[in-house]
Amino acid sequence: MGPIPRQFLITLFLLAFASPHSSATPPPSGYRSTLTHVDSKGGFNKAKLMRRAADRSRRRAATMQLSVYSTTSTSSDTRPTRLYSGQAEYLMELAIGTPPVPFVALADTGSDLTWTQCEPCKLCFAQDTPIYDRNASSSFSPVTCSSDACLPVWSHNCFATTPCKYRYVYGDGAYSAGVMGMETLTFGSSYGQAPPVSVGGIAFGCGVDNGGLSYNSTGTVGLGRGSLSLVAQLGVGKLSYCLTDFFDISLGSPVLFGSLAELADSSGGAAVQSTPLVQSPQNPSWYYVSLEGISLGDALLPIQNGTFDLRADGTGGMIVDSGTIFTSLVESAFRVVVDRVADVLGQPVANASSLDSPCFPAPAGAWQLPDMPDMVLHFASGADMRLHRDNYMYFDQEESSFCLTFAGSPGPASTSVLGNFQQQNIQMLFDITVGQLSFVPTDCSKL
Ligand SMILES: *[C@@H]1O[C@H](CO)[C@@H](O)[C@H](O)[C@H]1NC(C)=O
Ligand SMILES: *[C@@H]1O[C@H](CO)[C@@H](O)[C@H](O)[C@H]1NC(C)=O
Ligand SMILES: *[C@@H]1O[C@H](CO)[C@@H](O)[C@H](O)[C@H]1NC(C)=O
Ligand SMILES: *[C@@H]1O[C@H](CO)[C@@H](O)[C@H](O)[C@H]1NC(C)=O
């Protein structure tokens, strides 16, 4: 069965379940916002952008392994603190409250909680816009411990009628703590492609104690696949984004939710690829996919079957992430990819023990990358993600070298991450209701 009948069946399935609802109330709407790169206003040149991105990527990859639980615990709560992935690459512009105040959020597909800095601050990092004040908003309502919205963040000494407190800690040391509330979020307020759309009753964290790298954000928007995620809370359960050219850093990238989250496929469905999302009990927020193999040109690379499988203990697997720039592969697969790229370039691997993204000296006078074949990532159900040369290589003009934008993650059981350099100009659609990732090559600047 090809992708068209399957899509059609899914549509029927959704209609069947949506129809009793939609006769009484209007169907759930779609929402659109824009992702801007954290470095978009920094005025960095290409080489500097790459180095900054590589540093962030390395730190993020280290926080995306299962073993990252905090070893320190507070005196009253001895459970290990779950650490959420730290670092981010994109900011998403929203507004919060009534009247709306700007909410510039770090977009994180690796975690679920949406939070913003909140008055009265015990500790807040500097932000350009006024800090959100729940007393000044007519749409704020508190969340108590008995509420469903409290379950994912429930802590000790939380009793039915007490305010629901949360504390969220990220792997890079950033954190936010405060109380949960319900608010109205407004989309599309500043980009003007569409009139602003507001949606009420979104559970969020009102953060009065916040720290860590903020990248000029005023909080975080959780785009994972858990119940507290904005994707789940907006209904329909679909998220789509389309990342524009990394080096056109000032271009925004569209992000779509709900009924607007559809692939803008111009090829009549032929190019749309779909693969199941895999669920991990240990990491319910992450978007796992089954990577079965990698080809470069016509050759399937000699990577052992099962190398990227998610294991029962929660190690291994591959996740799709918008907060990691370079794809990172479990060590054994990384070595195979690097060796083959070295063959294609006719160069030896400079440092065979390094897990950093490798660079190869360019011939004198080179001014661009040489011709190279496409790399194809083969996902389960026959979904192939074709990466053109510019989605996996980069020409570093300052160093006159050709660099592979893949890194390795140490050990045989590490989690691999599909990074956003590889996702440039590929529209991604995550359907958390059906449990499927679909993607199609697209000029994201035209979406
Ligand atoms: C908002 O109201 C609460 C409860 O009345 C109070 O504790 C808090 O200090 C107020 N916040 C601000 C920023 O005034
Ligand atoms: C935050 O914004 C200021 C200017 O508004 C800029 O100088 C600074 O580099 C930005 N910081 C980051 C981490 O982007
Ligand atoms: C790996 O899996 C593929 C497809 O399932 C199969 O054709 C191939 O023989 C397997 N290779 C090994 C070494 O098991
Ligand atoms: C090779 O990589 C390893 C691991 O990153 C590093 O410790 C070593 O210094 C590198 N060697 C050279 C010659 O760069």
Automatic annotation (TrEMBL):
Check the UniProt entry and state the signal peptide residues, or none.
1-24
Cellular component terms per the entry's GO annotation: extracellular region
Q: Which domain of life is it from?
A: Eukaryota
Domain spans labelled Peptidase A1: 90-440
**InterPro entries linked:** Pepsin-like_plant, PEPTIDASE_A1, Peptidase_aspartic_dom_sf, Plant_Aspart_Prot_A1, TAXi_C, TAXi_N
* Short name of any one Pfam family annotated for the protein: TAXi_N
Please verify whether the record's keywords include Protease.
yes
* GO MF: aspartic-type endopeptidase activity
Q: Which UniProt keywords apply?
A: Aspartyl protease, Glycoprotein, Hydrolase, Protease, Signal
* Single GO biological process annotation from the record: proteolysis
**PROSITE patterns associated with the record:** PEPTIDASE_A1
Give the record's family classification. Answer: Belongs to the peptidase A1 family.
Q: What is this protein called?
A: Peptidase A1 domain-containing protein
